[in-house]
Amino acid sequence: MLPCASCLPGSLLLWALLLLLLGSASPQDSEEPDSYTECTDGYEWDPDSQHCRDVNECLTIPEACKGEMKCINHYGGYLCLPRSAAVINDLHGEGPPPPVPPAQHPNPCPPGYEPDDQESCVDVDECAQALHDCRPSQDCHNLPGSYQCTCPDGYRKIGPECVDIDECRYRYCQHRCVNLPGSFRCQCEPGFQLGPNNRSCVDVNECDMGAPCEQRCFNSYGTFLCRCHQGYELHRDGFSCSDIDECSYSSYLCQYRCVNEPGRFSCHCPQGYQLLATRLCQDIDECESGAHQCSEAQTCVNFHGGYRCVDTNRCVEPYIQVSDNRCLCPASNPLCREQPSSIVHRYMTITSERSVPADVFQIQATSVYPGAYNAFQIRAGNSQGDFYIRQINNVSAMLVLARPVTGPREYVLDLEMVTMNSLMSYRASSVLRLTVFVGAYTF
Ligand SMILES: *[C@@H]1O[C@H](CO)[C@@H](O)[C@H](O)[C@H]1NC(C)=O
Ligand SMILES: *[C@@H]1O[C@H](CO)[C@@H](O)[C@H](O)[C@H]1NC(C)=O
C-alpha cells in the first residue's frame, strides 16, 4: 500500500541515474502491528490520515542538492536534477506526463530559495507565506534558505510549546511583582515609585507632588505628614487645618475681651484703656498724656476709663480760694461760724468690685498741735454706708470701702477732721472733699 522508491517505473529510472539519493526504501514490515506509527525513511506518520506521508526533503533538508542541481521531491526521497532538465510532476503516474502549467515551472533554486524575475535565486520567506510549521505559541524567524521556530522573549520551550516564564519567582522586584504573559512588571507600595531600573522602589516626595496638605507638608519614608501653622489644628482628615479658637480655651487669656482671629487671637481693651503686655488693660492717663480737652481754668482729673475736667476754683461763697484746691472760710465772716474752716478738694479713683474691706484713702493732719486731739468722720456723701473711717492715731485716719461697689459711679465724700484741745476749749473743723470715681471695670 505504501508507495516505494524502489518501485519506480523503468522510464523514470533513466533520470534517476543522474543522481538518486533515496532512503533505504525498505519494504513495509508485515510483522508490524496495524497501529504502528513508524514510517520508513523519507516518510512521516500523519496522525490525521493514519498514514505515512511523504517528506518533502527539498524543503526540510538545507541544501539538499548542491551546485547547479535542482531538488525534486519524490515519494520517499528526492532527486537532484540539472536545472535544464524537464520534470514530470507525477513521478508515479503511468503514460505521458500531463502538461505542466506555467506557474508550476520547476524551481531551479536550492530549497528555501526561489527564482525571481531575473532567474536568480532569492530566499523564500516561509514565515510570511505560511510555509512553516511553527506552533501558534512560537515565533517564526525566516533564515536564508530556511526558517526557525523560537519562543518569544519571556517564554521557554517546554515540550513542543512555549510557556510563559514566571519571572516573579526570581525576586526581580523590590516590592511587588506582577507576572505578565511574556514579561513581568514591578510594583511599589503606596508612597513609593519605581526607580530608574524599573525594579527598585524609591520614596515619593508627596510634598512635591501636590500632597493635599492645607498648610505644611513633611515628607517621610513612604508617606507624608500634614502639619498646621501655629494657631491652627489638624483636622481629623489629616490634611486640612482649622483655626484654634484660643478665646474658648481660657477666659484668662485677656483681661477684658478676647477676639479670635485666623491662627491667633488678640486682646482688646475698653475705651480709655490701652493694652499692656498683650493681655492686660491699663488705664490711659489722659491728663498726663495730654489727650484731654480741659480748659485753662480747669484741672484734669484722671480716673479708671476716663478723665474729668473740674473747675480749678471750686470755692463757693462764703469760701474763698487760697490755693489750687483749698477753700477757706474767713473767721471774720459771720457765715463761717458754723462751717468748717477749710475745704480741700481731692480726687481719687478706684476700680469696681474691690474685695472689702479695702483701705482706699489715708487722711493726715497737716499740722500737729501739742495737746490737741483730732477726730475724723464722714460728714456727707455716705448715705448708703459704703465707706467708714478707721482712725489710726490722733493725726491720721483711713477711709475704708465697706461694700463692693460697681462703677461707673462717683462719690463726693466730705471727710471732716475735728481738732480739739480740751485744755484750751479749742475746737476746729476742716473738710477734705474727696471725689471718688469708681471705674466700670475691675482694672
Ligand atoms: C522602565 O520602564 C519604562 C516604561 O515601561 C521604559 O521606558 C524604560 O526603558 C524602562 N527602564 C529600564 C531601565 O528598563
Ligand atoms: C495726739 O498726738 C499728739 C502728737 O503725737 C500728742 O502730742 C497728743 O498728746 C496726742 N493726744 C492724745 C489725747 O493722745
Automatic annotation (TrEMBL):
Q: Name the protein family.
A: Belongs to the fibulin family.
Q: Which residues does the UniProt record annotate as the domain EGF-like?
A: 123-163, 164-202, 243-282
- Keyword Secreted on entry: yes
GO-annotated molecular function:
calcium ion binding; heparin binding; protein homodimerization activity
Per the UniProt record, the lineage of the source organism begins with: Eukaryota, Metazoa, Chordata, Craniata, Vertebrata
SMART domains found in the cross-reference section? EGF, EGF_CA
Taxonomic superkingdom = Eukaryota
Q: What task does this protein carry out?
A: Plays a crucial role in elastic fiber formation in tissue, and in the formation of ultrastructural connections between elastic laminae and smooth muscle cells in the aorta, therefore participates in terminal differentiation and maturation of smooth muscle cell (SMC) and in the mechanical properties and wall integrity maintenance of the aorta. In addition, is involved in the control of collagen fibril assembly in tissue throught proteolytic activation of LOX leading to cross- linking of collagen and elastin.
**Source organism (scientific name):** Chlorocebus sabaeus
What's the protein called, per UniProt?
EGF-containing fibulin-like extracellular matrix protein 2
Q: Where is the signal peptide?
A: 1-27
Per its UniProt record, what InterPro entries does this chain match?
A: cEGF, ECM_structural_protein, EGF, EGF-like_Ca-bd_dom, EGF-like_CS, EGF-type_Asp/Asn_hydroxyl_site, EGF_Ca-bd_CS, Fibulin_C
Might you report a single GO cellular component term? microfibril
Query: Which cell locations does it reside in?
Result: Secreted, Extracellular space, Extracellular matrix, Basement membrane
A biological process (GO) of this protein is:
elastic fiber assembly
Note the Pfam families from the entry.
cEGF, EGF_CA, Fibulin_C, hEGF
Its keywords, alphabetically, are: Basement membrane, Calcium, Disulfide bond, EGF-like domain, Extracellular matrix, Glycoprotein, Repeat, Secreted, Signal
